[in-house]
Amino acid sequence: MEGGAVPDYPWSERSAWEVIADSPNPLANRNMAADVIRSLIEAEKEVEGELAKLNIDELLSLLATVDPGGAGGARRCPLREVVQAVRPGVFRGTDARPEVPVLRPADLSERELGASGFPSAATELTRGAVLLPGDVLFAPADATGRSYRAAVWRGERGQATYSPGVLCIRPDTTRLVADYLVAWLMLPEVQQRIHTVARSSVGLQFLSPSRLLDAEMEVPSLAAQEAFTGRHAAITRERRVRQAQLAKLRRVKGILVDNLRRSMA
Question: Is residue 202 predicted with pLDDT exceeding 80?
Fold first, then answer.
């Protein structure tokens, strides 16, 4: 596991079904299945540990980037100094327009957009409502309005817009890198800062765009932001591999456990 190497766990769904199937010695195969399940549990723990390490590595990288005493020379300034605009979603339904994807708060998973297709609707698009690659989407994660999700729109579905409840933050690309902005927005202390400064009087789960612009942000040099983005991308790639690995281990373990239970019938 050293050096970021990803181990190849050999268990497959098919072999899991075959571990105790059609055997003249069910007890021996039950013991074999139990041994494999135990090894799968150990492998799960190993992958979970690697995921936890990746999270710590990413956090340390971000904290070093935002540190005013660090090499990036981060300084605090109002968000309004480093973004072009913050716009709330406005949905105007119409039967006269073709349908376009409409991103909703639920489409934002942690730091990225969900993998599933985005719902489409016929809506009247104004110029400001059309998402551009590099826009950052920001929305409450729950009804309390104390935690939020953020993701970069990369033009995954061509033309798209966003619903009420979602804010579109358009960074000034000469001052701010979108992926750094997302990572900064996801810091717990930053989310508390935003909740204190930017919550709307309309409802706790809504943010006021004008107040959000008043929130202070740690802004390092563009080079430091880009360096962080490169490290973040590498960590994200490995995290996806580990998550897929963990999902397969759990799926195979579940099949084996179910098969073991059925062997008692």
Answer: no
Residues 155/59/223/130 CA torsion (nearest 10 deg): 20
pLDDT digits (tens, 9 = 90+) for 132-154: 999 999 998 887 778 899 999 98
Which residues neighbour 58 within 8 Å (Cβ) at sequence distance 6 or greater?
Answer: 183, 231, 232, 235
CATH tag for 77-219 (out of 3.90.220.20, 3.40.50.2000, 3.40.50.10790, 3.40.50.300): 3.90.220.20
DSSP letter string over 210-250? HHHTTSEEEE--HHHHHHHHHHHHHHHHHHHHHHHHHHHHH
pLDDT by residue (tens digit) across 172-186? Answer: 999 999 999 999 999
Query: What 3-state class would DSSP assign to 197?
Result: helix
> Could you report the per-residue pLDDT of 24-64, keeping only the tens digit for each?
565 667 888 888 899 999 999 999 999 999 999 999 999 99
The strand ranges marked E within 40-147 are: 75-78, 83-88, 99-103, 108-109, 112-113, 120-122, 136-140
Nearest to 119, CA basis, from 166, 53, 57: 166
| Residue pointed to by tokens 């709330």 | 88
